[in-house]
Structures are given as structure tokens and as C-alpha cells.
Design goal:
Length: 355
């Protein structure tokens, strides 16, 4: 009977769930691991995210998650992430003190310097007002879908079972293991479990395993693809005061404009989420601060959603009613940056206390 029990079951094949599985498989290569996803690998928020890695942390908790997450990614990808690009980040702000408080900025660059204007030549109408402080840092970006597909391939190569289009409906406690029941009433046994289902968590019956706090909501995440082809030396541009980003997608041939949507309590339905007139108005209001006389045309757009906690910081918490189960989530659009640290915390605790 024990041969049929998995050492670890992960529910959710996004970047958080796959990070947890990969950390477990790397530290305990002989363990039997299974991953479930209601759709396919990376079909949720991970499939749409640009994977921005920036040195910004609003508080000590975020800075800790960032530092640990960065270390984990370097261990997983010592030679660089697939499809990723390291680059300069130019932060533009009228509040340099706040930027300094929340980041590890290297230096400032005069906004009128020739070198700066040359590097932004693919955005000829992009103007930097004289009262703007330009701070230079390093960062990177990598489509998160390329990460999750690579992690899934590497996990499969070492024997991890990945079961797509399989929804887990119930998780019950047994004396020495967990009993997972799928929506088609098939059952599976595991010694430990990680629940990482992203924006599906708030409305899932599995939400009951997490205490009422933190309060969870789902918010739309949007980005526009601007019809301007970046050059090979383009930096990423961080519009700090609006927490928006211009990311040079060099291979794809467009600038990605990532900004904050304010549409809350949406459902994680890829076919039902679109860029709204309110989203476009918010984007235009930000872009018109920087482009004159006209902003670049919008070639296309992307929209999905993510789960947000009260404080906007991802979490890793033991289930309140099932021993051996951890819930990680609340990616808040930052699952790539902060998720691996949450996954590491969950795996470390599970293997320390549930042998």
C-alpha cells in the first residue's frame, strides 16, 4: 500500500506550484511527486506574465522574499533563464527618496544625457522632463511561461507525474497521509501537499483549508503591446510614481507596457477577460505624461488576473485543518519574483515536520 502513496502532491502547475515541486525534487531526488492542474501547465497567471525581476521591495517582508527568490532562481538557472534577458533598468521618478527607500539603486543618470537619449531611440517621442530623476539599476525579464514549461519538462525527466486537466475537489486528513479526491471522484494518497492554485483559490472549496485571514480577492492584470520595435541595447523603463513598466520585447518586436488595472473581483476565465475602456484610459493617462505629441499605437494586448492578499504580499501558510498541507498564493502579480521563496518555505516546513 505504501508504494501507492506519493511523497508530495502539488495542486497547481503555475510558477509557485512548479517551484515547490522543483525544490522538493532537487533536495530529495528519490521522492515520488505528482502535480495536478485543472487546465494545463502555466494556463493561469503564469502564462501571461512578463517575469520582471527588479530590486524593489516596499517593506521588509517583500525584501526578504525578493532576496530569497533571486537566490533560488540563480540556483535553478546558474547559466541564465530560458528566454530571459538581463538589462539595465532606468527608474524615472519625482520622488527619489521613496525610490531609494524601496530599492537598491546603483546610481542616477542625468535625464538630458546623450547616452540616455540614444538608448531610447526606438521611442523617439518619449520625453523625460527636466525635473525627473533618472536612477540606473540592473534587472531582468523572462516570459514566465518559458520558465514553467522548462520546469515541467525537467520535472518530468526525473519522474515527476504531471496530471493536466485534473481538478482536485477535496483534500481530507487520514492518520498518516492526505487523501486527495478529484472532481471525477478518483482518489490519490500523499504524505504532504502544497495547494497553489492562484486566482482560482478564493472561489474554490479548497479555500476552506486556509484561515479567513488573509482576505483574498482577484484583480485583473493587463498589459499593452506598443507598436514600436526596440533596439538591442534598450533598457527596461520603470515609471516608479505610477508603478508601471516599459519592457523592450526585442525578439517579439514590440514594447510591452505593464500597468495597474483597478478591476477587482473578476473570474479567472481567459476567454472572458479583456482590456476594457477603463484600462485603456488608465494606460493613456500614464503614457501621455511621457510621450509627445502622440503615444505609440497599441498593436495588441493581454489580460488575465491574479490573486491578491490584503497587504499585496504573497503568503505561505499551513492549512488550518489538515496536517501536512501548505497553502501558497496571493501572487499579486509578483508570483515570479516572490513565489519561489514562498514555495521554499512550504517545502522546508513540510519535510521538517511531516516525515
Amino acid at each position: 500500500m505504501t508504494d501507492s502513496i506519493y511523497d508530495l502532491a502539488v495542486i497547481g502547475a503555475g510558477v509557485m506550484g512548479l517551484s515547490a515541486a522543483f525544490i522538493a525534487a532537487s533536495s530529495r531526488p528519490g521522492d515520488r511527486i505528482v502535480i495536478f492542474d485543472r487546465e494545463t501547465v502555466g494556463a493561469g497567471a503564469s502564462g501571461f506574465a512578463p517575469g520582471i525581476q527588479i530590486n524593489i521591495g516596499r517593506n521588509e517582508k517583500e525584501r526578504s522574499l525578493l532576496n530569497r527568490g533571486t537566490k533560488i532562481w540563480r540556483e535553478i538557472y546558474p547559466h541564465g533563464r530560458p528566454g530571459g534577458r538581463d538589462c539595465d533598468v532606468l527608474w524615472l521618478t519625482r520622488d527619489p527618496e521613496e525610490l531609494t527607500r524601496t530599492s537598491c539603486v546603483v546610481s542616477t543618470v542625468p535625464s538630458t544625457s546623450f547616452a540616455l537619449r540614444e538608448r531610447l531611440s526606438s521611442l523617439p517621442q518619449f520625453l523625460i522632463p527636466s525635473d525627473i530623476v533618472v536612477a540606473l539599476d540592473r534587472g531582468s525579464y523572462c516570459p514566465v511561461n518559458s520558465i514553467v514549461q522548462d520546469l515541467a519538462q525537467r520535472l518530468g525527466a526525473v519522474g515527476t507525474s504531471i496530471r493536466e486537466r485534473t481538478s482536485i475537489a477535496r483534500i481530507r486528513q487520514r492518520p498518516s497521509h492526505l487523501l486527495l479526491e478529484s472532481s471525477d471522484h478518483s482518489e490519490l494518497l500523499a504524505r504532504r501537499g502544497v495547494l497553489a492554485i492562484g486566482p482560482w483559490l478564493p472561489d474554490s472549496p479548497l479555500r476552506a483549508h486556509l484561515a479567513k485571514e488573509p482576505r483574498l480577492r482577484v484583480k485583473k492584470v493587463v498589459a499593452l503591446h506598443l507598436a514600436a520595435r526596440p533596439t538591442t541595447n534598450c533598457p527596461m523603463i520603470g515609471l516608479f510614481d505610477d508603478y508601471a513598466f516599459l519592457i523592450p520585447m526585442i525578439e517579439e518586436g514590440y514594447w510591452l507596457f505593464s500597468f495597474t488595472s483597478q478591476e477587482w473581483d473578476v473570474r479567472p476565465d481567459p476567454g472572458g477577460l479583456h482590456v476594457s475602456s477603463d484600462d485603456l484610459a488608465r494606460a493613456t493617462a500614464i503614457l501621455t505624461k511621457w510621450f509627445s505629441p502622440d503615444i505609440p499605437a497599441v498593436a495588441s494586448a493581454r489580460a488575465f488576473c491574479d490573486c491578491y492578499s490584503d497587504d499585496g504580499v504573497p503568503f505561505s501558510r499551513p492549512a488550518q485543518d489538515v496536517a501536512g498541507l501548505y497553502v501558497i498564493g496571493g501572487g499579486s502579480g509578483n508570483g515570479f519574483r516572490f513565489g519561489p521563496a514562498c514555495a521554499e518555505e512550504a517545502i522546508g516546513s513540510l519535510y521538517s515536520h511531516h516525515r
